[in-house]
Prior knowledge:
There is one protein chain. This protein has 22 helices and 24 strands. By secondary structure, the protein is α/β, with parallel strands linked by helices. Strands 21-18-15-12-11-24-23-22 form an eight-stranded parallel β-sheet. Strands 3-10-9-5-6 form a five-stranded mixed β-sheet. A four-stranded antiparallel β-sheet has the order 17-16-19-20. α1 packs across α2, α7 crosses α9 and α12 (453-463) runs parallel beside α13 (497-511). The model has no long low-confidence stretch (mean pLDDT 94).
Amino acid sequence: MDSAIDILAEKLGIATSFLDGSKERKKYIVDEKTIKFFAERMGYKAGTEEEIKNSISAYEKRRWQQSLEKIYVVEQGQVEFDLVVPAEQEAEDFALHLSSDKNQVPEPVSFEVINDEEYQLIGKTKYVRLKFKITSELEVGYYDLDLQVGNKHYKTTLAVCPQKCWQNEALNQKTWGFALQLYSVKSQRNWGVGDFTDLKNFAKIAAQSGADIIGLNPLNVLSHDFPENASPYQSISRLYLNPIYIDVENVPEFKQEDMAEVKNDVEEFRQSELIQYEHIYPLKVKMLQKCYERFKQNKNSARYQEFEAYIKAEGCELERLAVFQSLYHKFALQNMGGWQSWPEEYKSPNSLAVKEYAKANVDELNFFKFMQFEAARQFEEASQAVKNSGMKIGLYRDLAVGVGQDSVEVWSEPDLFFKDAGAGAPPDAMFPNGQKWGLGAFIPSALRETAYKPFIKILRANMHNSGALRIDHVMSLMRLFIIPEHLKIGTYIFYNFKDMLNIVALESVLNKCAVVGESLGNVPEGFLEALESKNIYALSVLWLERYNDGWGDFKAPEAYPPRAFSSIGTHDMAPLKMWWFGYDIELSYQLGIIESEENKNAEYKSRENDRWRLLKILDETGVWPQDKPRKGNYIYGEGYPEGIEEAANAYMAKTNCPVFLAELENILHVEKRQNLPGTDRDQHPNWRRRLPVELEKLAEDIAYVRNIKAINSIRN
């Protein structure tokens, strides 16, 4: 018989055991301390046996203590909800009205009332639970529901969802494009980091090359005061853009004489091998401040009126971001612990002190809003260029699985996130020591109590201007591995998978945006099938598409999943040339990730076998360039196989996957990786690698030309 703590854990969605994603599929039993930690964070005391039993009882009564849930997420054609009222009201007359964004006037709908004789005594009151089935046909969308019982009104939100995510017709055929880390783009005109003008210019090159999609890293706003915290997956808000991508010279208020002030610095940044965030971002901010001073001098201009309209449309979310950034700037040097170390009166956006601060610092707040206004304008400009290029899918944006703990999202709604814990991953094939990302993670019950509004806003913000959206670590729709700060390992916390999937599908249809789930790592049984049933595409990566659970031979192209976006690797993996020579193994050994020379040698031996396997599948697929056939085995000091990038790209182009994303790092023979998970920037220059070829020279680069030809020979 399960213990009381196990029963509580099951009700709250706290895994008491789990399998990791390693080759051995090791099983872990979660200790009681960890379970109690998460139960307490969810609002249920679990210190003693009596507290645990009381918490179980409280959980079981919770549905009987509110008339309607905050939201009902239902599928079209199966629109049902339940109501809890005192039993004497079950014979009352019922009237039901719905209103939506399209029709804000409440309209009556037809419905059936089902009484399954469910009763519960709470105190001295007997309650009944009634089920309502709406029989009127409803379009997909969100509705305000008003249920009248006698002379009483009960209100909630109804999310009527489609059966599947939106389908772009282009995905019914094989197409291809690029996976681009925008910050890494090198050009003769940018300031040492890729920007929105680079995106616009790259779109022209990509479209002329035959590409129909451009996959981007997350573009969300990062720390204003610590630009060296450059991970695009550690944003402070997933609702807004990173101002570092603003092309300052494209700001209408910028004047060419301003370049004299920054010319030498910009030239230095352009020549640097690594992106100098700590210098580039402050310089851009300085010049944007100069532009802002000119901008606000003409408050009668059409552009200023557009700015005011933007502020009004964005509302409290933009206001909170600006206040947070301003306060952070104020306290950055005094309080090194982030917003949680601020004076108490500033720890809540709703405090009187924060409101008074906002009133007293309107101009500074407006500068932060101006940067978002300009970033949005330039991103819109780049997005329009992508659309005008004729790409069938267009931009493919990336939604990070979490947000930085030291963020405006957590500051704004701290009760929505797990305190003193962060998202990560257990050990798997790629990361045998597991990963501790430390990202802020939603508390499932708290998220549902908000009617999923924060999740919906994030989806909308990142589906904007997107033909497709990649949901990072999509397993988080079902479960997320969360680790208490004081522990090395945590456990899985389960979310309302059905609700989360349906909301993704609804936003996909409303925004006409296809959805892709990054499903690499520890994938639960049946999970990929659930995604497919909702028309969510999977990700398929060469290094993991192997037999024997990812440890055997590489799969033939026809064995690849037919509903997946594919690529050779990801930003977290070694590019092809680095992989071939095993430079990634040596790097991991030098950093202590591989803990002994014996293990390092074993990794080299395994890599040698994998190189044989890669040559074998490329031979069998017949993808070597005709003018560069394989000349040897390249195993014992024979160097690097000439033409292997073309062969690998052609092999991936042959797969069943409807979309193949080529990586410029592989095309351009890059030998260093963009990101090494589990390391800080003092160990490895994560997110700082610049591409070796300038954008203006890319279309004529021989490696680029040959690889595009190889891909187009199969995909177009």
